[in-house]
Design brief:
Order of helices and strands: HHHHHHHHH
Radius of gyration: 25 Å
Largest sheet: none
Shape: flat
Length: 171
């Protein structure tokens, strides 16, 4: 029994010593950062304002909030999660111009974001920019597991862009 306790203490102290040498012991003593979310009073006021609003008023309010987020991100920059929120907002509003702007901002911070690359390729294709769509999908392909069903779909899509851009030989 004594041997088991001694081995347990050795393993415990070896782990602690390793963490102190390799890890970041200050994190053990630091307080967790406070997550900054929406102000509860503003949320309550917005809910009260929208309670009796019709769909058009709700849509207008949402569009105003999205425009405010876009303006702030254009002027001050922002974190990945803020750009992601703007992407999701424009996608919900079905605003392709805004979505393209938000995707460019997100991809500037996270150039290998698979969801953003997929969505950017879809937006470019929908806007008729096949070359840009192909570039986004080509950037996406190496990020996907070759065993995933989407891998083959995207590879085929890229090949179809190649075939449609080849000049046809008139004989």
């Amino acid at each position: 029994m004594r041997m088991v306790v001694m081995m347990l203490l050795v393993v415990l102290f070896a782990g602690l010593a390793t963490y102190l040498m390799i890890g970041n012991p200050r994190l053990l003593l630091a307080t967790a950062p406070v997550q900054q979310g929406p102000d509860p009073e503003r949320v309550a006021a917005l809910q009260a304002q929208l309670q009796d609003a019709d769909a058009a008023q709700v849509q207008e309010t949402i569009a105003g909030m999205v425009a405010g987020l876009r303006s702030r991100l254009e002027n001050e920059g922002g974190a990945v999660d803020e750009w992601d929120r703007l992407v999701r907002s424009y996608a919900t509003l079905q605003d392709l111009e805004g979505l393209e702007f938000a995707l460019n901002g997100l991809l500037a911070l996270e150039p290998e974001n698979p969801q953003a690359l997929l969505l950017a390729g879809q937006v470019a294709a929908q806007q008729g920019d096949r070359a840009a769509a192909q570039q986004f999908f080509m950037r996406l392909l190496p990020l996907i597991d070759p065993e995933h069903p989407r891998f083959e779909q995207i590879r085929t899509l890229i090949e179809s862009f190649d075939q449609s851009s080849e000049p046809t030989n008139a004989e």
